[in-house]
Each structure stands twice: as C-alpha cells, then as structure tokens.
Amino acid sequence: LAIFSITRPGDEIILTDSVYSPTRILTQDFLKEFNIKAVFYDPHDLKTIEKNISKKTKLIFVENPGSNSFEFQDLGKIISIAKKNKILTAIDNTWATPYYFKPIKFGFDMSIVSATKYYSGHSDVMGGSLAVNKKVFNKVKTAERNTGLRLGPDDAYLITRGLRTLDVRLDRHSENAKKVAEFLSKNKKFKLLYPYKKDSYNFRMWKKYYSGASGLMGLKIKSKNTNSVKKFVNSLKLFGYGYSWGGFESLALHQEYRETGNRKYLNLAKDEHLVRLHIGLEDPSDLIADIKQALKHLK
To answer: At residue 145, does pLDDT exceed 80?
Structure first.
C-alpha cells in the first residue's frame, strides 16, 4: 500500500539491500510487471543511495535494523539525502515499534509495522499498520479505499488488545534480551548481532536514534558442518522453531542462504550461518540454560 500509493509506471524506488525478503520479492519481481524499478543500496555505505538516485526516484525505503543481518544505519543521513533530493521516505519499523523509535516525528514520510508481531504479542493474528504524515496522507487514503486493503474486525480487535500491553511486554523482552545477549557475547562460537558492544558503530547508531532494544537478535556461527548448526537449533527445548516472532514465546530459526533474499551486500562466508533468536517473556536464566545445553552440538 505504501509503495503503490506514491509510485506510477516508469518510477524508481531505492531500498536497503537488507530489506525483509518478502518485501524484496514484491519490489524486485512483482513491481517490475508494473514498470516500477527497484534498486538496492549497501546499508554499510549510504553513498550508494546517492549513486542510485535518478530523476525517476520517488521513494527511499529503509529497514532498521537490517532483516537477519541487524546492522543499524545512520537514519539522520538518510533523511538528509532524501530531503535534499525531494524524495519520499519509508521505514519498516517492526523491530523497534514506535515505543522505541517514532519515525514520523523523526522525519520519515511513512512508517510500516507488522502488527502480527509485537503489536499483537500473542502470535494469533496477522496484520500490518501504516502511519503517514500529512504530505502523503491523501494519496495513501485514495489507494487504501480503491484497493480495499483493510483489517477484518476480529483481527483489529486482537491487535488493539495487544497494544494495551505493548510497553509492559517490550520492557520485559528488552530486559530478557539484554541478559541473554550478555551471555552470548562471551561465547567465542558466536558473533552476536545485537546492539550490545558500546564501542561499535552498530551500538552508536542504535543509541543515537532509539530509546530501547527489542527481543530480536541474530547469531553468526562459523562452522563447516551445517548439520551441527541445525542440531544446535533443533535441540533447544524452550525455544520454539518458527519464522514469525514478536509473541510471548522465545523462538529460534536457522536461516538458509536463500531466505536472506539473495542479497548483494550480505557479508556472509560459505562456512558462516545465521541463526535468528527471538527472546520471549520466559525466565532469562532458563533460556540461557537451554542455550548452554544445546552448545554441545556445535562443531
């Protein structure tokens, strides 16, 4: 809805290379049928945004942190580039939600959040939200009315119910994630993808723009034995195995290379594996103990 509202055949959009893979498929493959071109910039080098701007560019689409790779970008620089070139901006803010970062107030034109995740909080509904500023409101309203993209009443009720406890839940997710991250950061088998290292660029960019961190993080594991990584994930007893996240339960997922969206700028060697963890509302000491017992499978 966000993209269709402001683009027409012949237009171009620029997206971060680390965008959510279904978003990549939609923009790279589906929009091509409507003669709308998608180009992808390197999230580690924002100069690649400016290099890809043309007279046809209508939108810069950001996801922060990057999907599965969890790098944080300098959002202020992106907004400056967009305003300088009179280009609209959108951000997928699902990881933080407006509780930890308010995109419209910051200067983005559109903010997208998967309501399936933290908004709902109970893994029992699918939906999405789109917040916009006055500049694009009428265009989005027209597109929404003409396409009929709206929630059913039961879905809306469940998401509204979840929003009532969003702050309480996110505080607990964040508190638990911090404790698990402290444990994981000390293990040499992992490279932790989470804003925990105070001297890192990732931490500085997170701290500069966000008031908190949610429960989603990644692990980069170096192993020539793919089966051992899968055994590590499958032997977790308190962590469920699932693609979605944001509910009350902890989840783990071994990301196959194809699930990263065939990225151009993904820094992942052949013997490196991505494991995504969502830290839920359980006792963090139990989660840490669960990870400890599964470590024996990593080779």
So the answer is: yes
